[in-house]
Here is the input.
Amino acid sequence: SEPGPAHLEGTPHDRQSEHMPRALVVFGVLVQWVRIGAGVVRRRLPTLMQRAADPGRPSVVNCTWRTFVQKIDHFGSAPGTFNQRYCVYDRFWSSPTAGPGAGRRGPIFLYTGNESPVDVYINNTGFIWEAGQRKGALLVWAEHRYEPLSHPCMSGTENCYGYCTTAQALADYAALIRALKAELAAESSPVVAFGGSYGGMLAGWFRIKYPDVV
Here is the structure.
C-alpha cells in the first residue's frame, strides 16, 4: 500500500534531528563572535583607559565630586536632611571679556539625574560635553534622591518612600542650582537642563516648575 502522509513527513524526532546541524553552526558562529569581541576589548582597554583620563574626554575621572545638604521634605514639616551627590566639570567654563556679555560667566548646563547612579550619565551623555565645550559652559550632574549614595536615612520613618517624588527631586535641583550660583558668583549665568528618558521629563518639568531657575 502507498505510504500515508504521516510516514512521508517523518516523526517530530526526525525533523528535530535535521535542524540540529544548523543550530550547531549558528551557535559556533556566535561563540566565535564573542571570542573576537573579547579580544578587541582586551587590546583596546589600555587605550580606552588612557582616553578616559584625558582632561577633555567625557569621564567621571575628570569631574570634581561634591555633596550638597538637601532637605528630606521641601514642602512640609518632616525633619531631616541628606547629602545629595553631584559633580562638576569647569574646564570649559568661560568668562567673556568683551562685547554685550562682558564680565558674565558662561552658562550652566545641569543634567537632571534619573533612575541610576549619576556616574552612568556622566560617562554616557556625550551631547552635554559637546555642547558645553562649544558654549563655554559649567557642567553639573546632580544625582536623583534615593539613589544609593544620595539616600536619606529613613530608618524607622513611616512611609519612608513617600519623599521619593518628582516634586521633591525638582526642588532638590532648584536648591542646588541656587546655592551653586551664589557660591560661584554666577547669578547672571543662564541655566539649561539636560536629561534623557525619565531625566528628560525631569528637565522639561524643571523648566515649567522653576522658570526663575532654569
